[in-house]
Amino acid sequence: MASVNIHCPRCQSAQVYRHGQNPKGHDRFRCRDCHRVFQLT
Q1: Confidence (pTM)
Q2: How far apart are CA 41 and CA 6, in angstroms?
Q3: pLDDT, tens digit, 9 for 90 and up, residues 9-20
Q4: What is the 3-state secondary structure (H, E, C) of 15-36?
């Protein structure tokens, strides 16, 4: 399995963690620095 470095789109921090899924099943992530919740497209 490949590893992907994910960065926050707001603050560019690499301190992100998986934060569940949206209703369509896509993974959501949350930034530990600015607390933004986002998903990869």
Answers
A1: 0.84
A2: 12
A3: 999 999 999 999
A4: CEEEEEECCCCCEEEEECCCCC
Q: Quick count: other Cβ atoms within 10 Å of Cβ 13?
A: 14
- Whose tokens are 């497209």? That residue is 41
Q: Where are the domains of the chain?
A: 7-41
Average pLDDT of the residues of the chain: 95
Q: How far apart are CA 4 and CA 13, in angstroms?
A: 14
Find all residues with CB under 8 Å of 18, minimum gap 6, and list them: 27, 28, 29
Q: How many other C-beta atoms are found inside a 10 Å radius of the C-beta of residue 39?
A: 13
